[in-house]
Write a structure and sequence with these properties.
lipid binding; mainly alpha; transmembrane; 76 residues
């Protein structure tokens, strides 16, 4: 029974800690994109493309953390 509790704790910690950095990153990406658009509205297309690409890379880290959490929960 104790290994079950440890496994669930490890699952919760892996997803909980694994999404903190991507959440902060996406917030900072959006913030800096809005600053860039405020300074140079003509560059909207380039800023938007770069912002979406950077947000996708940040979210991929969260998806990786989810996969690790699922592996811990169901395989280990």
């Amino acid at each position: 029974m104790e290994t079950e509790n440890v496994r669930l704790l490890a699952t919760a910690l892996s997803i909980g800690l694994g999404v903190i950095a991507p959440a902060l990153s996406v917030g900072l990406i959006g913030s800096k994109a809005m600053e860039a658009l405020g300074r140079n509205p003509e560059a909207e297309s380039a800023v938007r493309t770069t912002m979406i690409l950077a947000a996708a890379f940040a979210e991929s880290i969260a998806i990786f953390a989810l996969v690790v959490a699922l592996i811990i929960k169901f395989v280990v």
